Amino acid sequence: MTFKIFSYIKFLLKSTNEHGVHSPFVFQYVTKCLYSKNKLHHKKSINVLLKTIYSFSFEKVCIKKNAKAKELVKQNFTKIQFDENPIDLLFVDKMDIPSFQKTRSEGKLHNDSLILINSIYDNKEILGQWNRLIALPEITVSIDMYHCGLISIRREQVKEHFTIRI
Hints:
The chain is of the alpha/beta class. The protein has a single domain (2-163), classed as Rossmann fold, CATH 3.40.50. The chain contains six helices and seven strands. The protein has helices at residues 2-14, 24-34, 44-56, 67-76, 97-105, 124-134, and strands spanning 60-63, 81-82, 87-92, 109-118, 141-144, 148-152, 160-163. It has a seven-stranded mixed beta sheet with strand order 2-1-3-4-6-5-7. Helix 2 packs across helix 3 (44-56). The chain is globular and about 40 Å long.
């Protein structure tokens, strides 16, 4: 419990809103998606998942080991195709470097794919995995939202990390 309290305080001290974002892609994501008025779910990471699918009009989504989230997506987006490659959005509860590299080598991701990782501050180990993951040269965009994290491999994007309050 102490880890979560201190990590949240640290997060608040270094986080920003849309005014601290200089990337057009991330600025649009923050203003048109994350800060949009519609609230689709009470749990923040699930709300981000649903808002992201809606904002990008994603068609191919993969949700690993989270039946509740998958059911919510099915209810809200009837035309979503699950587990069709390449995927537009991958939602996972946990991701480390080997699982990222495996997903990438299997051709599941394209240039504009997003990976949304749930609960990146659950404990020190998961936060460490997140930090090692975003340090990879292939990851060009990473957004720490405390309740979840988003990574992307957009080749045209300069490598940047953002810490955004939601």
